[in-house]
Write a structure and sequence with these properties.
Blueprint lengths: L1 H39 L2 H6 L1 H9 L8 H22 L15 H36 L10 H32 L13
Amino acid sequence: MLKIVEGIARLMAIVGGLVLSLLVILICVSVFGRGMNTIGHSDALIALSKGVADALIATGVGPVTGDFELVEAGVAFAIFAFLPICQLYGSHATVDIFTNALPGPINKIITTFWEVVLTVIVLLITWRLFAGLQSKYAYGDTTFLLQFPVWWAYGASFGAACVASLVGVYCAIARVAELATGRKFMPYSEEAVH
């Protein structure tokens, strides 16, 4: 079962990474276009050569229309896409200044408790994301500039959140089973010391 869960979590992380990489490229293109547009409108270039300035502006160079709308939707998806791998490997940020001094069995109880709490929170977020998806779909909300349906972003994030929920349920059950039996069901049952 661990191999299946790990494979799904890795696949989601790869997809999230690809989306994030595309967003970085989009931002670079948009910033470059905005910069070139600014140069085309600059007094210095106009004074140096109005023809070059006009030619630059005539190319249509400028920021990518709706870049922030795409970044907003893409980053939301990427966050949910990275949740499964983070939860599976226990890679969420932790503050363990006081718990490092506690005995190992107490730390296992604390880890199991927070694993269950995190899973409940992810399930709650997934449920509310589904409610938001239904609302955005029913009302037909669209983005301001690109006019693409907002529910698309909610749908993509909901799909990733469903995977995060499944992985979270596995992790919670595995942590409880580890605590009860002493066997290891998680890839890294012992957390790293930071």
